[in-house]
Design goal:
CATH superfamily of the largest domain: Spore Coat Polysaccharide Biosynthesis Protein SpsA, Chain A
Oligomer: single chain
Largest sheet: 7 strands, mixed
Radius of gyration: 26 Å
Helix content: 40-55%
Number of domains: 2
Strand content: 5-15%
CATH topology of the largest domain: Spore Coat Polysaccharide Biosynthesis Protein SpsA, Chain A
Length: 383
């Protein structure tokens, strides 16, 4: 295993595509801190990139025949880095926006936290940060929190220190900009801790060439987040809630959180009951979790309460919705027994009565759940 000024097993990975104008300066600057443990993945460049790389015999180079996107270049680079004996790969861009002077800070955080994923956080308040980058980062930060429960200031940064062993324990499907988001979400799901290091960034120089295509790449990232949110709702959050140490213990911990007020916890339960009953079958959590995060409610309490609509309860909820809806339908009200009459066909025939009743029932259950939780919360916390 090589040794560098950054530390044993720590190298710098630079994916590049048609950045010949800035690449040479970036490599000279990086070598001030990383000597020979530098790996460049040339992602099918068609400019003078290969001629520039030939000037650096001490660095490791992988030349890909065609451009397949940053995600594929990173995946290839991580595989090559493992062959080189690296434990961590610090990634920076070749367009000159990242300052290699921050490499020692990133490496120091790695040495202090040898299992962590280290994120280099930009100051998004800088006036030179493009509006599209600021918006995209806020968008990604929000959905990353929905998917993992972790708050990060900059999920879109390209300045990261990747733990290669942990990264090799799962597969990814994204090849372009979505790859990085998919990877950090899956690392979070597997319990990898996250650490943040402030880093510098430059956008205001004429030599910089960006290959970011706002509409196309934002669409790819959106698709990735949609998929990750779906997996989080169906697998990650239920696993966290029901299989990590027992539901009663988890609820006790959540109800005893000193930083959250009783009314906030009560509203979390009430909103969970509301979303579990309101007629948005299949989308309650998909809509409810982002809404709960936006309103700064307790996610665990919300998800637990929203599971009032588990399969054994669904017939009872539908029947109760019909009964409540009948109160508002006048002479058009339809009555039925809690029996074989309660079928999907009957629901479709009298959909308006069901929809009215379910909304009223959801609001009522939400209010009652909030009030009862608030009343019971104090003695519950004393147990």
């Amino acid at each position: 295993m090589g040794s560098t000024s950054l530390g044993d097993g720590i190298g710098v990975l630079i994916p590049t595509y048609n950045n010949a104008v800035t690449l040479e300066g970036v490599l000279h600057h990086v070598q001030q801190y990383a000597s020979s443990n530098v790996l460049v993945v040339n992602d099918g460049s068609t400019d003078g990139t290969q001629e520039i790389l030939a000037k650096f015999p001490d660095i490791n180079i992988v030349n890909l025949p065609t451009n397949k996107g940053k995600g594929n270049a990173l995946r290839t680079g991580f595989s090559e880095a493992r062959k080189l004996g690296w434990k961590y790969a610090i990634t920076i861009d070749s367009d000159g926006q990242h300052d290699p002077a921050d490499l020692p800070k990133m490496a120091s955080m790695v040495r202090e936290n040898p299992t962590a994923m280290v994120m280099g956080a930009r100051d998004m308040g800088q006036s030179e940060i493009p509006g599209k980058s600021s918006f995209g980062n806020k968008f990604s930060n929000f959905w990353f929190k929905v998917e993992t429960g972790i708050t990060l200031p900059d999920t879109q940064t390209g300045y990261r220190a990747w733990p290669l062993e942990a990264l090799g324990k799962f597969k990814t499907i994204s090849n372009r900009f979505g790859y990085e988001i998919e990877s950090i979400v899956k690392l979070a799901w597997r319990g990898t801790p996250f650490k943040v290091v402030p880093v510098s960034v430059r956008y205001d120089f004429p030599e910089r060439v960006s290959h970011f295509k706002p509409f196309q790449d934002f669409s790819r990232v959106s698709v990735t987040h949609t998929w990750m949110v779906t997996v989080a709702l169906l697998w990650f959050w239920p696993k966290q809630l029901f299989f990590k140490g027992g539901l009663v213990r988890i609820l006790r911990e959540e109800f005893n959180r000193p930083e959250e007020s009783s009314i906030r916890k009560s509203l979390s339960v009430g909103f969970g009951f509301f979303m579990g009953i309101v007629p948005l079958w299949g989308f309650q959590l998909l809509i409810g979790i982002p809404a709960a995060i936006f309103m700064k409610l307790n996610r665990v309490l919300f998800i637990t309460a929203a599971n009032i609509s588990i399969p054994p309860m669904i017939p009872l909820i539908i029947f109760a919705s019909y009964m409540v809806g009948a109160l508002f339908m006048g002479t058009d009200a339809v009555t039925m027994e809690f029996s074989q009459q309660l079928t999907l066909g009957r629901v479709q025939e009298h959909l308006i009565q069901y929809l009215i009743g379910s909304v009223v029932l959801a609001v009522t259950a939400g209010i009652i759940g909030t009030v009862i939780t608030f009343i019971l919360l104090r003695p519950f916390r004393k147990r």
